[in-house]
Amino acid sequence: MVDLSLIERWLTGWSLSRGLPLPFHQDGGLVVEVGKPDQLRRHVFLDARQALQACADRIQDPHIFLKAAVAPDVLRRALPERWRIETPGHLMGCPAPMTSHVTLSPEYRLAVDVQKDAHVVRVIHASDEQAASGRLVVHGGCAIFDQIETAEQHRRRGLGTVVMQALDSIAIRAGASERLLVATDNGRALYSRLGWHMLAPWSTAVLPSP
């Protein structure tokens, strides 16, 4: 079951992965001060009820994001028309080690690094081009998978699975008992094949720039 503490575990890992301040509780939700020109702050809620709506009423500037574990149409109905609903995501979990295995082709090699709080896995092509990558933070027994990406010209070769396998090996060694991520539509299909399951829809709203 999804509750605010689960969302906080994911958001803490997301923040650590990206070198941002840790989330804090405010007015029934969570807040991360992102501090980037295109995303100043994000307010994260369990649902789209009164706390989120009150927060939305106080926001007048663009680049401040509202996020909630609800379907896009639910978030749309909760907000005034001035808010734009972004492409939805999917909050997913995996309680045990992943179930699939792919062998890396000889034209690629795997590189593993640590950047502050995040483990970083990269798949490098023989041309020295980065073909795929992903990040992992393990915090309080929870493994948060983040920024799993495959370059377009290297897709459909199992590299996303290779990255997830490598990250999961790190999670296993760290003794993680919980795995969390937020997936795109395309990513959801991959993660489902690896044993992940949907916990909740994940929706985002932001005020358009003038």
Describe this structure in words.
The radius of gyration is 18 Å and the shape is globular. It has helices spanning 4-17, 50-58, 72-78, 159-173, 185-193, and strands spanning 24-26, 29-36, 39-45, 64-68, 84-85, 89-93, 108-115, 118-125, 130-139, 142-150, 178-183, 197-206. A hairpin with a 2-residue loop joins β7 and β8 (118-125). The mean pLDDT is 96. It has 2 domains: 4-90 and 201-206, no CATH class; 108-199, Gcn5-related N-acetyltransferase (GNAT) (Aminopeptidase), CATH 3.40.630. It contains 5 helices and 12 strands. The longest helix has 15 residues, at 159-173. With 210 residues, it is of the alpha+beta class. Pfam families: Acetyltransf_1 (PF00583).
Short description:
This protein has helices spanning 4-17, 50-58, 72-78, 159-173, 185-193, and strands at residues 24-26, 29-36, 39-45, 64-68, 84-85, 89-93, 108-115, 118-125, 130-139, 142-150, 178-183, 197-206. It is an alpha+beta fold and 210 residues long.
Ordered list of secondary-structure elements with their pairings:
Blueprint: H1 4-17, E1 24-26, E2 29-36, E3 39-45, H2 50-58, E4 64-68, H3 72-78, E5 84-85, E6 89-93, E7 108-115, E8 118-125, E9 130-139, E10 142-150, H4 159-173, E11 178-183, H5 185-193, E12 197-206
Parallel strand pairs: 3-4, 10-11
Antiparallel strand pairs: 1-2, 2-3, 4-12, 5-12, 6-11, 6-12, 7-8, 8-9, 9-10
